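Form 12-C: Joint structure prediction
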Amino acid sequence: MKLLFGNKKDDLPGRLKRQDPAAQKIFYDRNVKKFLSVSRSYISDVYQAEDCLIKAFCKIFTNIESFRGEGSLEGWARRIVVNECLNFIRSHKTVFYLDDIHPEHLKEADDSGLSADFDAQELLDQLPDNYRMVFNLYVLEEYSHQEIAGLLNISVTASKTQLFRAKEKLRKIYTQQQRTLSHEKS
Amino acid sequence: MKKANHTLSEQIRKQMDDRETVPSRDLWSEIESQSAVKNSKPSFNWLLTAACFILTFSLGAVLFLNQENKPAGEPEKMAKTLQKPAVQRSAEHGVNEKQKGLIVEIPEQKTTTENISAAVKNDGQKQEPQAFIQQEELPVVRQNSTQVIPELSPVKPEKTIAQADSVRTQVKKKRYVDPSTLLFSVEHKDAIQKSKGKSNVASIEISGN
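Section 2 - Result
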């Protein structure tokens, strides 16, 4: 039955373009948890992240006609969620970007040997907004520095600097968490 | 290269990719309500717009056609007013009785001639229906004008222009014409014409004749 339904020409994107409420509910049920996790990675407050997600879903259903079938529908919708989160941060907070470090000095530290016993969400929540946005776009969404610079309206150097500082900050936070855990165990 | 040097980043990415967050409240009802609000906006009614356009164009067409079908009363009036100065020009030449008839048909002079005829014939009741008399004689003017115009053609244009001006001034200035003066001018027309010469002023010695 799934194969039959999957081979139908009238699949989910087609039904969504016809504003089929049942198709919209199916799409929502499939992606709400994942998209909320994405939204939550940008916005530390859960309720604000959910508000952004509601707006993102409305935009997805409204602008479904602009989806041309290039790539997956989920990837296209995820970009809408990310943009909605970025707009929220820029509208509610003042974000500063510094590019005071020369690109030659942006050398990544060796993170090998780190244990996986940590909560990534907690680490991200402790990052400043400007660091978190660049880190998420580069690491989680796999945007290039050029794309990030265009999206955030900053220079490529600023994007690289923010990423470097974000990783340093995450390393520090991780180290502090590990020390706290070791003290608690002892 | 990238993956080897960013272990912490890789682990964070892996955790976030596998992570799913359950909503704290019912988001679908809120999404539905917001979508319903957007869909409830009145859509553009093409039929109503088309009907408005058709009505507007039809009204414009009706008004345009009405303007074209208006009766041409004004051109006839213009012809009458143009004929009157032609009549006035022909009156000053002082030719035959046909031109007299044209002189008689000038509205203000008409009344005086009618009064003279009434005085001569002891018939003063014709002063009142001046409008009717004028209206009756207007067709006669038209008939006579076709006959008079060839007779007027040898007259020089300078005199006609000057005479036309003098006639206009006389008409404007003299609202009430002295019947005796008018009668004298008719009886001694030749002498008056001779005394004028190039000017518009006539001088006649009454005692001479």
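Section 3 - Comments
DSSP finds nine helices and no strands in chain A. Residues 114 and 174 of chain A are 9 Å apart (CA to CA).
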